[in-house]
Amino acid sequence: MNKPSIPKGTRDFSPVEMAKRNYIFNTIREVYGLYGFRQIETPAMENLSTLMGKYGEEGDKLLFKILNSGDFLRGIDVKALEDGATGHLAAQLCEKGLRYDLTVPFARYVVQHRDELQMPFKRYQLQPVWRADRPQKGRYREFYQCDADVVGSDSLLSEVELMQIIDTVFTRFGIRVSIRINNRKILTGMANYIGQPDKIVEITTAIDKLDKIGIDNVKAELAESGVSAEGIAKLQPLFEISGDNDTQLQAIAKMLSDDEVGTKGVEEVRFVLDALKPLGLKNEIVLDLTLARGLNYYTGCIFEVKALDVQIGSITGGGRYDNLTGIFGMPGLSGVGISFGADRIYDVLNQLDLYPQDAIQGAQVLFINFGQAEAARSMQVATQLRQAGIAVEVYPDSAKMKKQMSYANTLGVPYVALIGESELQSGLVTLKDMQSGQQQQLTAAEVIKIVGKTA
Question: What confidence score (pLDDT) does residue 376 get?
Fold first, then answer.
């Protein structure tokens, strides 16, 4: 018989892995809550009409489509079937698909429920998404996104709060990060400055690679994509801007002083950085004029977070957009959002061994089972411990002592409690510290005090 398996690009999570993942989700959830964000959930499947055409041609190909229920071939175009016209067929066979991200379902939610929503609307969502991508290291077909957005306000205070959220989350995790910030309007201003506004995408795509490929290769790529030699020469000062955030801002403001859009971008970044100065961020926030992110989507400030002690890509990103709901016929709704990369954060926490023990701990005490009467008494004491917030297991079978102790060791249970004949008579519990090997006879109240202190 064949061993069962799961689809490529998906994963099972063990109890230890789930404990670690829940630590990540719970931390993010708590911090979102501190800033007044409220949780929503949307269905795993959406109507394909909601999803198609929102992610570009490439994105449409990566949508998981769901066959219609029942006789899905009824009324099918037989000629299309014979001709192998898959695109046309998919539209007839499938009315629904698995969500590709949380942003488009959120836009649909806002439009569908607009009469019930109080603006500005601050929502967060922690749910899985699916992409029919080619699975490879670090890229999965099913993964979680942890998004927070504020829609219905143009205020830059929302950007300031999101930077604080990022800082708070990574401080709680103990991960040192660099929070990079830029503005889409600055990038637009650069394209205007060299007289080639139509080359905004090519310019920013090339500039985005400066760290990886170096200045000469960036220039070569710019030339290849049709940016004039004169334009490249005018961009040269941009590559040489350095210094602290204020120095960089002054330099770019000077470069773009004649461009209205670029100047507005500089002002927006300056507002956010100035507002953050007195708020005591624990991590550095750095103006990065080469940061571009997904350009056709963002319209204002953009952010990206890099871990400082681990070589890994961006672990959080986001930015301001002006027209989230325009795709569903409700134009002009501005918003700003961030998304934490839970899978990458998981890898960073693993590499740096930063999980707190209590976050991944199962039971703190295991009661050894010596027989029916002893187990009954163990259940009573276990109930008292649980009422005091201590996680407890009672071993279900009166198996050999060695087997039960081995069980406790394998699961890393810190304390073993023994109630045998003598403990039944004395009303006490023998508590064994599995690390030191020390054991002592205690009342239930004393057990609670000792174990509660180490939890």
Answer: 96
CA distance 317 to 154: 19
Closest CA to 428 of 451, 413, 445: 445
Residue 126: inside a domain: yes
pLDDT digit string (tens) for 200-257?
878 877 877 777 788 888 888 888 888 888 888 888 777 778 899 999 999 999 989 9
With 0-12 / 13-18 / 19 or more C-beta atoms within 10 angstroms meaning exposed / middle / buried, residue 288 is buried
Reported pTM: 0.88
Task: Single out the residue of 333, 323, 319 nearest to residue 156, CA to CA.
Answer: 319
Q: What are phi and psi of 36, to 5 degrees?
A: 80, 10
CATH no. for residue 39? 3.30.930.10
**Which residues, including other chains, have CB under 8 Å from residue 152's CB and lie 6 or more apart?**
117, 119, 120, 121, 333, 334, 335
By residue range, what is the domain housing residue 327? 15-43+98-352
Band of residue 363 on the pLDDT scale cut at 50, 70, 90: very high
Question: What digits encode the pLDDT tens for the residues 315-326?
Answer: 999 999 988 888
Is the separation of the CB atoms in 188 and 323 below 8 Å?
Answer: no
The percentage of residues in the chain with a pLDDT greater than 90, rounded to a whole number, is: 67
Domain boundary among 352, 378, 397: 352
Please indicate, yes or no, if residue 2 is contained in any of the structural domains.
no
- Determine how β-strand 316-321 pairs with β-strand 301-307: antiparallel
Dihedral angle, C-alpha 280, 286, 292, 298, nearest 10 ° = 20
Has residue 417 been placed in a domain? yes
Residue with token string 């009573």:
380
Those residues with Cβ within 8 angstroms of residue 322's Cβ, 6 or more apart along the chain or in another chain: 299, 300, 332, 334
Q: Which residue has the tokens 């077909």?
A: 141
Place of tokens 């003598």: 422
